[in-house]
Design brief:
- By secondary structure, the protein is of the alpha/beta class.
- Among the domains are: about 80 residues, Gyrase A, domain 2 (2-Layer Sandwich), CATH 3.30.1360.70; about 140 residues, no CATH class.
- The strands form 4 sheets. A 5-stranded parallel β-sheet has the order 7-6-5-11-12, sandwiched between helices. Strands 1-2-4-3 form a 4-stranded antiparallel β-sheet. A 3-stranded antiparallel β-sheet has the order 8-9-10.
- The model has no long low-confidence stretch (mean pLDDT about 90).
- The protein binds one RNA strand of 77 nucleotides through helix 3, helix 17, helix 18, strand 15 and helix 21.
Amino acid sequence: MEEQIKKVLLENSQELFGEQIEEKLIQFQQTRREFEGDVTLVTFPFSKILKSKPEEVAGKIGAFLKERMASVKSYNVIQGFLNIVIEDDFWINQLNGIAKESQFGYSEPNSKSLKMVEYSSPNTNKPLHLGHLRNIFLGYSVSEILKANGHKVIKTQIINDRGIHICKSMLAWERFSPVNQKGERETPQNTGIKGDKLVGKYYVEFDIHFNNEAKEIIAQWEAGRFDGFPKEVTAEYQKLEKAKAEKSDDEKAVKEINAKIKDLAKNQTTILRDAKEMLVKWEARDPQVYLLWTTMNGWVYDGFEATYQTMEVDFDKLYYESDTFILGRDVVLEGLEKGVFYRKEDGSVWIDLTADGMDEKLLLRSDGTSVYMTQDIGTAIERFRDYPDLDGIIYTVANEQDYHFKVLFLILDKLGYDWAKKCYHLSYGMVDLPTGRMKSREGTVVDADDLMAEMIGEADKMTAERGHLEGLTKEQIAELNHTIGIGGLKYYLLKIDPKKRMMFNPLESVELNGHTAPFVQYGYARIQSLLRKAKSENIALTAVTKLETEDINLIKSLSRFRNVIDEAANSYSPSLVVNYCFELTKEFNSYYQSINILKEENEALRASRLILCENIGKVIRLGMQLLGIKVPERM
RNA sequence: GGUCCCGUAGCUCAGCUGGAUAGAGCAACUGCCUUCUAAGCAGUAGGUCUCUGGUUCGAAUCCAGACGGGAUCACCA
């Protein structure tokens, strides 16, 4: 509608304004509820060029539109705002159009370019936690939104399956895992512990032994025993001790020095040396180490897979760091020849980004090995090779890595890859607990599996208390609780603008009233209940013929859906979809409370309203689908 | 210290391509189930949009500065 009005104004600009006006002067906004009208034109910009009062201009435009456009029913002017009222028939036609499209609001599938969305990308030494949940739900939802917007999408993740961290778990398992009567060490099979949790347990176990050993070393040093330690280390320690004594009144400085001493001691532990040795063996493909590595990673993948299934998310393509960590090296060496990078005397390779307002960044260590940045360069290039028609990668990664991605994209650009500017860092804020930031050392990490189980449990309680469960089997009830619990969690994490840091309040997150998934799901279930009854009463839902103001207001809301998807896709922001679903449902609930639908005596109106409800339900379902949230037929 | 992000009701958040009287949810208080699912609806109360300047007919929104919070600046990932 707005487009039509804009067109008419532009085409008749000479006649109306005496000159050709710029398109951007035509500004629409939603008509505020307290005024009559469907579309509002802001007329201040015109009054400026016409040098007359906004009210006069508004009146002139209003009269003109009413005369020229059949679908303009009337208009009113309030303080320079032209509120335009559209004919009911226009809206009735809109609804009939919406009803015909089973995927209303979505664009033609695969009508736009191919995008890759990366999300999750966990380490294989720790189970997934709350931070991953925000990441995963976001990445999945953005993928669905891009698809609905017409893009072809590849969901991917890079699995951080190699490095010192996984060696730590491996070593701890080999060394500290108890042996049962059959002579086996702990496995997911013989303990019943989920694979990722078991490996995580040994990562923690490593850390305990690691810290203890470091403490013992410090105790030895403090007692003045330095036999068996390299001279440099002894010297460094003594230097630090001396510095500490000098700054004994500066608490902060002492703390810093103590941390340095601890790092120094940690580097002298045999357990770390052994883990590093294991990494060297892994890189040399030592068969025994490799077997242990594949076994333990296998456990982790089984564990992650179970978690992803509970989350109802998936991936189209996996990248493993063990395959990609060597990539990028050659590219960096090429870049070195081209002069993009430079080499320091010790052999390390760097890029100088100071001209771009950034620092110098290391790309290859002096021993020739890669760092994270090098790998990311390689992986990005690999992906564009794997998918030649790829039109950009969206990296779902927390905002602590804003700088990293800024540098990555800049380097790719400097290397001459023109697709670099199509890469986007979907940066999201940290999830805080009421007690502050999650810290693994303080045991405040919220485990993903535990949290999901808790949400489902809470849904279970509420469903038993107030659900409409007549005729549902146990399995169906379990499915319903899953839908409500997981839906609630997704909704809670997605409703906030991704860019912003958010507070996760465990008590509030299991809440099922207000701005929550169950609120929306309940609205949907109510609609389905109406439709079931209509069906059992054999009411034919053929076409929309007659509607009243209250109904038409809802059609206006429905017709916004396509724009919401566009905006959400352009800004990679599922929260826009969440808020839309909430507002639509709220509007429906209010309508439902005050209007007769099934009980409406006028048959044409009753059928029209049922079709309206059916389509509200459809849009709620399609909207929630973009968030990865299911809707129940009854609850 | 440099760079980046954030600051809106008691709490959690919308609104930010400048436009009408700044909105929701939670918490508090009042009503509404013999009537289509009360996980709901209607209402009351709650604001110096951190502060100070600037641009503008018009600023929560744009610009500058201050204050407060966070992130980041590793031969870690």
